[in-house]
């Protein structure tokens, strides 16, 4: 298994390098103090479809080397489906839009030594020249400023269980309320309170839809959460029309496109729920709070399910990458 993994990584790395040959230097509206990969810069200038990708999932969402392999496979899936990937991170205080292979590898190896960077951390990290990875909230903010309208990830943050007492509500939700980027994800993990998360998205005025043959909002590891979604779209073209409509209305708020995990990759719901219960008890016992809560829960659920949840996690992100890339492509066509 190990040697297969290494061979696969080498193959993907080689494939990956081929995409970074562009020597394109700049485009209109480009920020001088930000670093754009040549591939992304050229795509933005020539209005090719671009898909933003976050990096906290690399440092805090998965262990090395699964995180590296997944990050590269997700980028390649985006390319195969017609768009250019732009993984976003902060390297020594500089905002990077589109990373080189070496940078992705460095962040993957740093794991939680990289600073998890949400909106509130952006001024601090850039003024202190620190290296960090962006959450859904900060990735949306940067993507929007760079003119990228579609963003793919695994799952977003939400209202935590017992959030009515702790007030632990992810900044991802308020960002969705004020930044016009469409986030393609597999719903929210049941480490969170899914019902309250949907309520909060409604309060923030976020456009929410499910994708595919479903009326249920998805629960990340499993296709159904038991909570209904008021809107459902069945093609990537309809999703592109939704993004265009959101933009024509000048709503200036975000969109959440929730794609259920394909049935064949779904995790055993009972095993995951059991792992979540154990992990939730541990955070209370250990007094874990704030930004450390989500990474701790993700790590423990993976450990307790002995990697079963990680397998589902990787499969669903690749599925989201495929759909998100097609949405971005359809949107570029609509806007042309
Ligand atoms: N949920 C996941 N995987 C992740 C995250 C959330 O299933 O990797 C990461 C994302 O980067 C998300 C962040 O934006 O955690 C949310 O953290 P918090 O709950 O502290 O806002
Ligand atoms: Mn939080």
TrEMBL record:
The chain holds residues 15 to 350 of 810 of the full protein. Transmembrane segments: none annotated. It comes from the Eukaryota. This is Carbohydrate kinase PfkB domain-containing protein.
